[in-house]
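Lab notes, practical 5.
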Amino acid sequence: MKKLFASLGLMLALLSPGMTLAQDAAAQLAETVTAQITAVEIAAPGVADAAPAGEAAAPVPEKGDTVWMMVSTVLVILMIIPGVALFYGGLVRAKNMLSVLTQVMAIFCLISILWVAYGYSLAFGDGGGMNWAIGDLAKLFLAGITPGSTTATFSDGVVIPEFTFVAFQLTFAAITVALIVGGLAERVKFSALLVFAVLWFTFSYLPIAHMVWAAGGYLFEAGDLDFAGGTVVHINAGIAALVGAIVLGKRIGYGHDALPPHSLPMTMIGASLLWVGWFGFNAGSNLEAAGGATLAFINTILATAAAGLSWMFAEWALRGRPSMLGVASGVVAGLVAITPAAGLVGPMGGIVLGAVAGVVCLWGVTGLKKMVGYDDSLDVFGIHGIGGIIGAIGTGIFVSPALGGVGVDGYAMAGQVVTQVKGVLITVAWSGVVSFVTFKLIDMTMGLRVSEEQEREGLDTASHGERAYSM
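Output from the prediction step:
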């Protein structure tokens, strides 16, 4: 470029009528052009060079991280609708299929609005004197958040757009409440379920999410490890479903009449969609398209496969034959168990966690359920509650670098396990109390359960005036 301008200057000089004046003009033009080019070259490198001396430039989100978080968010939505909806829908009787689909979709819509209205602010805000348990309302209705707002990740100087973080966390809140449907299926009032969703989301999900994931939260500061929601999502929802099943009472005919799933192919499709969507759930929780996401990704394959096999072989040994429902249930149990550990344990640790969860959750939905006598319709507690507990405590063990885990500062296995147990107990107690009080209040005011006539008819027509199938 400099040579081009110099040549132009020389040509102008040769064409000028006065040689001396032309030479002076050419020299002046060359000096001006050179000065301008130098100024451009100095300013060109970037924003950092234009910042005042001593002032670091604000980090800018990487496009790859932003895209990964958007994709992960969509994958979690796939887990809920249609994943959870079809998994649950296939397990109920045909006369209740449509009601389950409606409940799951309606809850997703409801929690989405509540999350941006006040949920995000309370879950991740700074609650001042109450910050150990809950945030504030500074970001009510997403106040102050713009397309230029950013949220920090786990790496220094790395950020993502805040809107992507808001949307990603929205899906976690929605799936947690939707999971509870499985414990109440085939007998809960639709209106009562929606009221419960609002109250439980506000008084159980938001405080637990804040305590575990927000800076200043009690369990966060205590060092509790929950990579993607073992306590916040699965134990929280599992306990609520168990309490709800007990308060509601057993379905008509439970323990006497056969109440078989009406469509196991639907359940298998739902389980498959859950597995696919869970990659967003676990690997997305790394908040960056980086090495931690790849660890969570491979663990989501291996732990899940191990759990599916362990459940299948245990059932085969106990009952003489393996079942498709058993394999699908084992897959979900493995997904649950690896959730809190996904980006923290090595692949071999993930396999062990999955294998243990498959066998123990099988006992949870058969032996324990029969022993206690509750009617958790779709085994939310047996799979999500028990699987979440196994994963949460197991994270404290397998995060050890000696066992292939990534390790944490000041790690000592005994101390970390105690911290994990504390997190489990607090979640069980908090969710249990909130769930019991909420269910009881609703039952005393508007009623929690449909009438016997409506239950026998089926909730598809009794609650929604539609049928899933027209034969």
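Observations recorded by the TA: The chain has a mean pLDDT of 91. DSSP finds 18 helices and two strands in the chain.
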